[in-house]
Predict the structure.
Amino acid sequence: MNVELLTALIGFAFVMSITPGPNTMMLLASGVNHGFRATVPLIVGVCVGVLVMLLAVGLGVGQLFARLPWLYTALKLFSVVYLLWLSWKIATASPASSIGEGAPRVFTFAEGVGLQWVNPKAWTLCLTVATAYTLPDQYAASMLAAALVFAAVNVPSVIVWALFGVSLRRFLQDPVRVRLFNGAMALALVASLSPLVLELARAAKLL
């Protein structure tokens, strides 16, 4: 991988990792409701999940979707339903007298990994990396290198979001503020789905 391609990949990885999306909203909410230590499994799960997904998409899954576009559409529909359900669970969590009690439950490592497969932003970044940041004559090696570079940028980026949530814990000690915060996170998660919903609507010729 040449310097120009590496530099472009690092910039793309940073923008995709640090900007709001399903992963960052979940990490922020977990940091607020449960603190950093309890959020570590989710952090590791997200980072491992992105890396595994990058390699899987780059080395075969992307070609499967190219041959079976209906399967990709079905996955998109499932993504919308699942993330809407997740948003509802966050928004309707019952706040109690202190953060952590009655909050959305702590997400596990496995859920952090699995979340990537229903994360529209993760699919976009994986398909982009596989097509725009690899070398045709050294595809497998450059895909592996690109996945590792992306992972190296992704780890500190997701940690920042979790720490940002932790920094808000004192301000959000009031149960009313916690309810408002969780509602805002749920709305942000729903908003992150808008490009996917519009794409599905156009595909169904509803727009």
The chain has one domain: 3-203. The chain has a mean pLDDT of 79. The two ends are 41 Å apart (CA to CA). Residues 22-67 form the longest helix (46 residues).
